[in-house]
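hey m, so remember when u said the C-alpha coordinates were messed up on ur end? i reran from scratch. heres the input so u can diff it against urs
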Amino acid sequence: MGTLRAYAALARAGFRRYSTYLQATVAGIVANTTFGFLRTYILLSVAGSAGRLAGYDEAQLLTFVWVGQGLIAVVNAWTIVDLADRVRTGDIVADLLRPVGPFAAHLCTDLGRAGFAMLTRFVVPISAGLLAFGLYLPRNPLSYVLFGVSVTIAVVISFCGRYLIALTAFWLLDTRGLNQVWVFFWGGGSGLYFPLPVLPDWLQLVLWIGTPFPSTLQAPLDIAVERGGPGHAGLVLLAQVAWLGVTLLACRHVQRRAWRKLVVQGG
Protein backbone atom coordinates (compact mmCIF):
# COMPACT_ATOMS: atom_id res chain seq x y z
CA MET A 1 0.00 0.00 0.00
CA GLY A 2 2.88 2.33 0.72
CA THR A 3 4.27 1.74 -2.74
CA LEU A 4 0.87 2.40 -4.32
CA ARG A 5 0.57 5.66 -2.40
CA ALA A 6 4.02 6.65 -3.65
CA TYR A 7 3.00 5.91 -7.24
CA ALA A 8 -0.20 7.94 -6.81
CA ALA A 9 1.77 10.83 -5.32
CA LEU A 10 4.18 10.81 -8.26
CA ALA A 11 1.27 10.81 -10.72
CA ARG A 12 -0.32 13.77 -8.90
CA ALA A 13 3.04 15.56 -8.98
CA GLY A 14 3.24 15.03 -12.74
CA PHE A 15 -0.28 16.41 -13.12
CA ARG A 16 0.54 19.51 -11.04
CA ARG A 17 3.85 20.04 -12.80
CA TYR A 18 2.28 20.33 -16.23
CA SER A 19 -0.78 22.22 -15.01
CA THR A 20 1.49 25.12 -14.00
CA TYR A 21 2.46 25.79 -17.63
CA LEU A 22 -0.86 27.42 -18.56
CA GLN A 23 0.52 29.58 -21.37
CA ALA A 24 2.18 26.57 -22.99
CA THR A 25 -1.06 24.61 -22.62
CA VAL A 26 -3.11 27.34 -24.29
CA ALA A 27 -0.55 27.69 -27.09
CA GLY A 28 -0.62 23.92 -27.63
CA ILE A 29 -4.42 23.87 -27.75
CA VAL A 30 -4.46 26.66 -30.34
CA ALA A 31 -1.83 24.87 -32.44
CA ASN A 32 -3.61 21.50 -32.27
CA THR A 33 -6.95 23.07 -33.18
CA THR A 34 -5.49 25.08 -36.07
CA PHE A 35 -3.74 22.05 -37.53
CA GLY A 36 -6.96 20.12 -37.03
CA PHE A 37 -8.71 22.38 -39.52
CA LEU A 38 -5.78 22.17 -41.95
CA ARG A 39 -5.65 18.36 -41.79
CA THR A 40 -9.43 18.14 -42.13
CA TYR A 41 -9.58 20.00 -45.42
CA ILE A 42 -6.50 18.26 -46.79
CA LEU A 43 -7.94 14.78 -46.13
CA LEU A 44 -11.38 15.81 -47.37
CA SER A 45 -9.82 17.03 -50.61
CA VAL A 46 -7.98 13.72 -50.95
CA ALA A 47 -11.21 11.82 -50.34
CA GLY A 48 -12.85 13.89 -53.10
CA SER A 49 -16.43 13.58 -54.21
CA ALA A 50 -16.59 9.94 -53.12
CA GLY A 51 -16.33 11.06 -49.52
CA ARG A 52 -14.39 7.93 -48.57
CA LEU A 53 -10.71 7.26 -48.03
CA ALA A 54 -9.06 3.93 -47.19
CA GLY A 55 -12.22 2.52 -45.62
CA TYR A 56 -13.19 5.66 -43.70
CA ASP A 57 -16.38 7.51 -44.59
CA GLU A 58 -16.45 11.29 -44.22
CA ALA A 59 -17.62 11.32 -40.60
CA GLN A 60 -15.05 8.70 -39.59
CA LEU A 61 -12.34 10.61 -41.42
CA LEU A 62 -13.22 13.80 -39.57
CA THR A 63 -13.19 11.97 -36.25
CA PHE A 64 -9.84 10.39 -37.12
CA VAL A 65 -8.38 13.87 -37.60
CA TRP A 66 -9.82 15.54 -34.51
CA VAL A 67 -9.33 12.68 -32.08
CA GLY A 68 -5.79 12.38 -33.43
CA GLN A 69 -5.16 16.07 -32.80
CA GLY A 70 -6.43 15.61 -29.27
CA LEU A 71 -4.25 12.57 -28.62
CA ILE A 72 -0.99 14.06 -29.88
CA ALA A 73 -0.21 15.71 -26.55
CA VAL A 74 -1.63 12.81 -24.54
CA VAL A 75 0.62 10.22 -26.17
CA ASN A 76 3.47 12.75 -26.39
CA ALA A 77 6.11 10.98 -28.43
CA TRP A 78 8.61 13.83 -28.56
CA THR A 79 9.38 15.02 -25.00
CA ILE A 80 12.77 13.74 -23.85
CA VAL A 81 12.63 11.89 -20.52
CA ASP A 82 14.82 13.93 -18.15
CA LEU A 83 16.58 10.75 -17.06
CA ALA A 84 19.15 11.57 -19.75
CA ASP A 85 19.98 14.90 -18.07
CA ARG A 86 20.30 13.18 -14.70
CA VAL A 87 22.72 10.67 -16.18
CA ARG A 88 24.81 13.46 -17.66
CA THR A 89 24.96 15.37 -14.35
CA GLY A 90 25.43 12.30 -12.17
CA ASP A 91 22.18 12.86 -10.27
CA ILE A 92 21.09 9.39 -11.34
CA VAL A 93 23.12 8.00 -8.42
CA ALA A 94 20.70 9.61 -5.97
CA ASP A 95 17.75 8.24 -7.95
CA LEU A 96 19.02 4.69 -7.53
CA LEU A 97 18.99 5.07 -3.74
CA ARG A 98 15.30 5.99 -3.62
CA PRO A 99 12.61 3.43 -2.71
CA VAL A 100 10.88 3.96 -6.08
CA GLY A 101 13.12 3.17 -9.04
CA PRO A 102 13.71 5.58 -11.94
CA PHE A 103 11.47 3.69 -14.37
CA ALA A 104 8.44 3.62 -12.07
CA ALA A 105 9.00 7.21 -10.97
CA HIS A 106 9.21 8.59 -14.49
CA LEU A 107 6.29 6.44 -15.70
CA CYS A 108 3.98 7.60 -12.90
CA THR A 109 4.94 11.21 -13.55
CA ASP A 110 4.23 10.74 -17.25
CA LEU A 111 0.83 9.22 -16.52
CA GLY A 112 0.01 12.32 -14.48
CA ARG A 113 1.09 14.47 -17.40
CA ALA A 114 -1.10 12.44 -19.75
CA GLY A 115 -4.06 12.88 -17.40
CA PHE A 116 -3.68 16.66 -17.51
CA ALA A 117 -3.29 16.60 -21.30
CA MET A 118 -6.48 14.51 -21.56
CA LEU A 119 -8.46 17.16 -19.69
CA THR A 120 -7.07 20.06 -21.73
CA ARG A 121 -5.22 19.24 -24.95
CA PHE A 122 -7.69 16.43 -25.78
CA VAL A 123 -11.04 17.90 -24.73
CA VAL A 124 -10.73 21.32 -26.38
CA PRO A 125 -9.79 20.19 -29.94
CA ILE A 126 -12.49 17.51 -29.81
CA SER A 127 -15.04 20.15 -28.77
CA ALA A 128 -13.92 22.38 -31.65
CA GLY A 129 -14.32 19.50 -34.09
CA LEU A 130 -17.79 18.70 -32.77
CA LEU A 131 -18.87 22.31 -33.13
CA ALA A 132 -17.48 22.75 -36.63
CA PHE A 133 -18.16 19.34 -38.19
CA GLY A 134 -20.34 16.27 -37.87
CA LEU A 135 -17.99 13.85 -36.14
CA TYR A 136 -18.58 10.12 -35.90
CA LEU A 137 -19.74 8.97 -32.46
CA PRO A 138 -19.22 5.29 -31.65
CA ARG A 139 -22.49 3.36 -31.71
CA ASN A 140 -21.30 0.52 -29.48
CA PRO A 141 -20.92 1.58 -25.80
CA LEU A 142 -18.07 -0.92 -25.45
CA SER A 143 -16.04 1.14 -27.92
CA TYR A 144 -15.70 3.94 -25.37
CA VAL A 145 -14.25 1.53 -22.81
CA LEU A 146 -11.89 -0.03 -25.35
CA PHE A 147 -10.81 3.42 -26.46
CA GLY A 148 -9.85 4.35 -22.90
CA VAL A 149 -7.89 1.12 -22.49
CA SER A 150 -6.20 1.62 -25.85
CA VAL A 151 -5.17 5.21 -25.04
CA THR A 152 -3.68 4.12 -21.70
CA ILE A 153 -1.64 1.40 -23.38
CA ALA A 154 -0.55 3.85 -26.09
CA VAL A 155 0.72 6.30 -23.47
CA VAL A 156 2.79 3.60 -21.76
CA ILE A 157 4.24 2.29 -25.04
CA SER A 158 5.22 5.82 -26.06
CA PHE A 159 6.83 6.40 -22.67
CA CYS A 160 8.78 3.14 -22.93
CA GLY A 161 10.14 4.18 -26.32
CA ARG A 162 11.29 7.53 -24.97
CA TYR A 163 12.68 5.89 -21.82
CA LEU A 164 14.76 3.51 -23.93
CA ILE A 165 16.18 6.48 -25.78
CA ALA A 166 16.94 8.19 -22.46
CA LEU A 167 18.80 5.09 -21.28
CA THR A 168 21.23 5.42 -24.19
CA ALA A 169 22.64 8.41 -22.28
CA PHE A 170 24.62 5.87 -20.25
CA TRP A 171 26.63 5.24 -23.42
CA LEU A 172 26.13 8.39 -25.52
CA LEU A 173 25.48 11.13 -22.90
CA ASP A 174 23.59 13.20 -25.50
CA THR A 175 20.33 11.60 -26.70
CA ARG A 176 18.90 14.48 -28.74
CA GLY A 177 19.85 12.97 -32.09
CA LEU A 178 18.19 9.63 -31.33
CA ASN A 179 15.13 11.45 -30.05
CA GLN A 180 14.78 13.30 -33.36
CA VAL A 181 15.06 10.03 -35.27
CA TRP A 182 12.34 8.53 -33.05
CA VAL A 183 10.03 11.52 -33.63
CA PHE A 184 10.58 11.40 -37.39
CA PHE A 185 9.70 7.74 -37.76
CA TRP A 186 6.89 7.98 -35.20
CA GLY A 187 5.15 10.66 -37.24
CA GLY A 188 5.10 8.54 -40.38
CA GLY A 189 4.44 5.18 -38.74
CA SER A 190 1.86 6.12 -36.12
CA GLY A 191 -0.90 7.54 -38.30
CA LEU A 192 -0.14 11.16 -37.39
CA TYR A 193 0.58 12.35 -40.93
CA PHE A 194 -2.02 10.17 -42.66
CA PRO A 195 -4.21 7.13 -41.90
CA LEU A 196 -2.06 4.03 -42.26
CA PRO A 197 -4.70 2.16 -44.33
CA VAL A 198 -3.77 4.36 -47.30
CA LEU A 199 -0.52 2.37 -47.46
CA PRO A 200 -0.16 -1.00 -49.22
CA ASP A 201 -1.26 -3.96 -47.10
CA TRP A 202 2.26 -5.40 -46.84
CA LEU A 203 3.66 -2.11 -45.55
CA GLN A 204 0.89 -1.79 -42.98
CA LEU A 205 1.69 -5.30 -41.77
CA VAL A 206 5.38 -4.43 -41.45
CA LEU A 207 4.55 -1.32 -39.41
CA TRP A 208 2.11 -3.11 -37.10
CA ILE A 209 4.32 -6.14 -36.48
CA GLY A 210 7.77 -4.63 -36.81
CA THR A 211 7.36 -1.29 -34.99
CA PRO A 212 5.43 0.03 -31.97
CA PHE A 213 4.39 3.20 -33.80
CA PRO A 214 0.87 2.19 -34.94
CA SER A 215 0.06 1.05 -31.40
CA THR A 216 0.62 4.57 -30.08
CA LEU A 217 -1.90 6.45 -32.26
CA GLN A 218 -3.45 4.52 -35.14
CA ALA A 219 -4.78 1.86 -32.74
CA PRO A 220 -6.91 4.12 -30.50
CA LEU A 221 -8.05 6.10 -33.54
CA ASP A 222 -9.32 2.97 -35.30
CA ILE A 223 -11.20 2.00 -32.15
CA ALA A 224 -12.66 5.50 -31.84
CA VAL A 225 -14.15 5.39 -35.35
CA GLU A 226 -15.06 1.69 -35.07
CA ARG A 227 -13.21 0.88 -38.26
CA GLY A 228 -13.59 -2.80 -39.07
CA GLY A 229 -15.97 -3.47 -36.18
CA PRO A 230 -15.31 -5.39 -32.94
CA GLY A 231 -13.06 -7.93 -34.66
CA HIS A 232 -10.64 -5.25 -35.83
CA ALA A 233 -10.72 -3.61 -32.39
CA GLY A 234 -9.73 -6.92 -30.82
CA LEU A 235 -6.78 -7.34 -33.19
CA VAL A 236 -5.68 -3.77 -32.56
CA LEU A 237 -5.74 -4.25 -28.80
CA LEU A 238 -3.89 -7.56 -29.15
CA ALA A 239 -1.13 -5.78 -31.09
CA GLN A 240 -0.97 -3.08 -28.44
CA VAL A 241 -0.71 -5.59 -25.59
CA ALA A 242 2.04 -7.43 -27.44
CA TRP A 243 4.05 -4.24 -27.96
CA LEU A 244 3.42 -3.20 -24.38
CA GLY A 245 5.04 -6.43 -23.21
CA VAL A 246 7.94 -6.07 -25.64
CA THR A 247 8.71 -2.47 -24.70
CA LEU A 248 8.43 -3.11 -20.94
CA LEU A 249 10.82 -6.06 -21.19
CA ALA A 250 13.18 -4.02 -23.35
CA CYS A 251 13.22 -1.23 -20.76
CA ARG A 252 13.97 -3.72 -18.00
CA HIS A 253 16.79 -5.39 -19.94
CA VAL A 254 18.48 -2.18 -21.14
CA GLN A 255 18.11 -0.59 -17.71
CA ARG A 256 19.95 -3.49 -16.08
CA ARG A 257 22.79 -3.13 -18.57
CA ALA A 258 22.80 0.62 -17.98
CA TRP A 259 23.16 0.20 -14.22
CA ARG A 260 26.22 -1.97 -14.83
CA LYS A 261 27.58 0.66 -17.19
CA LEU A 262 27.02 3.51 -14.72
CA VAL A 263 29.87 6.03 -14.48
CA VAL A 264 29.44 9.25 -12.52
CA GLN A 265 30.82 12.14 -14.53
CA GLY A 266 33.70 13.81 -12.71
CA GLY A 267 33.79 11.14 -10.00
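this time it looks ok to me. The mean pLDDT is 90. if urs says something different then somethings off w ur setup not the seq
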